[in-house]
Amino acid sequence: MIGILPMQVEVREPYGWRLIQEFESPQEDHLLLLPLTIPTGGDVNEDEGYHHHQQQEEEEDKEEEVYLALITPGEAGEARLLQYHPGTDSYLHTGVVLGGGGCEVMGVGGYRSRNGRVFLVSGHACPHTPTSTPTSTPTPGFPSGSPSLHHNTTATQGVVESGVRVWEWVSGGGERRRVTLLTHYPLPSPTDLQVMNVFGTACVVVAGGADTRVLCEDREGPPGVLRELQRITTTSPYKLSLAPYKYPGAMTTWVLAVADPLHAPTTPTSSSSSGGRRGGGSISLLVYSHHLARFTSLQRERLEGVVWVDLVSQGPYLLLAAITEDLHGHTDGRLLIYRIELRGSGAPVPYMKLVQEVSVEEPREAHFTPSATPGKVSLYVLTRQGRITRYSATGHLHRLQWSGEVHLAGRVRMAVWRGAARGATTWGAGTAVTRLAVSGRGCSGSRHLTPPPRPALVLEERYRAG
Q1: Tens of pLDDT along 249-259?
Q2: Sign (positive or negative) of CA dihedral 265, 267, 271, 277
Q3: What does pTM read for this prediction?
Q4: Which fold has domain 12-443+451-461?
Q5: Residues in CB range of 268: below 8 A, 6 or more apart
Q6: H helix runs in 368-420, sequence order
């Protein structure tokens, strides 16, 4: 379905949104939409990774294909990959299905390997407990001492393990594609995954159980086979965010933020706004060291009830948005904005400064849309009622200000990305536009135990002329 937003959708903002497409679930259940970008050809840039959280506006001139992963929930869930077609300005099924196999699909990512082959990764949470031991168990250490991932040895015995699956994506004739499951890495039910690229080596960062694990392609092994590079232990990592950062006059590296709702660090930092609060929750901030070939810890910020983090690069600094939920039976939560500066050579000295705090009723997610211009950024915040508020800042960043709002009742999941307008869009070819996918179903509090199913939507932001 293509058209203007239907009248039952409340829009209160100066610009507006255009409805690109909507997806109905045949099982009358909620759907999840996640955007996914993969480079289409040429050499692999050694400083790039591709995932729905990592699109930088300055990368828009590079060739890449934009896909949507349409995920159905539950144990019978699966992820269907949809490809963007400029002629119809819509997303059509590629024929690729990442099956859950009795597990819930928790996230997807993709990358082009050093030899040009395309691989997809998916995280799966399974309700069963394996009754047999895999033939190979990855151990810390890279590149030596860590066995590669392996095919799922317990699946043949009727048990499917939680973990990460790696699929190779190949042409299937014409525009159709197909995937082949290559490997499976068993780990406690993953809650989030991200993809990055370090000097041409693709890595998958996964949160699950009590660890955040970094799995990287083995340069000495076949493409698509991963080894464990690192295991970062906290208490219950829930949400990850990766962003590239370029030191002045130096190479680009990666910064990782981990939201842990349960962990309470023993030494709160001075910039924490919750130093006087009781209870758990923290944000771990890490930077990738090329010299050590691993992430090193920069700072752990105590933050009670943190459930979401999102990073974005802004020239000489980074911004981090954090969402907290109230743990005492109230509906109020908080949106916190931190400015992060990495200074010095060798071991960076972090400076994580809280610059803004906003009280939000039942917040759920927050997503930045980056810009090549430092200080020019937008942030979209979603609540459990389906209300999306946009905050924007231009010039030298001091505070994000309210700049628009849209209410999409019942939607509780969101993704935001930027891309080039093409095809049937109202903008000229190549114009950068912001698109937003909203999905899921939910209601405020527990008044409705089974909320009604609602279509998943893809929207495009409309800008005032000039």
Answers
A1: 778 899 999 99
A2: positive
A3: 0.82
A4: Methylamine Dehydrogenase; Chain H (2.130.10)
A5: 274, 275, 302
A6: none
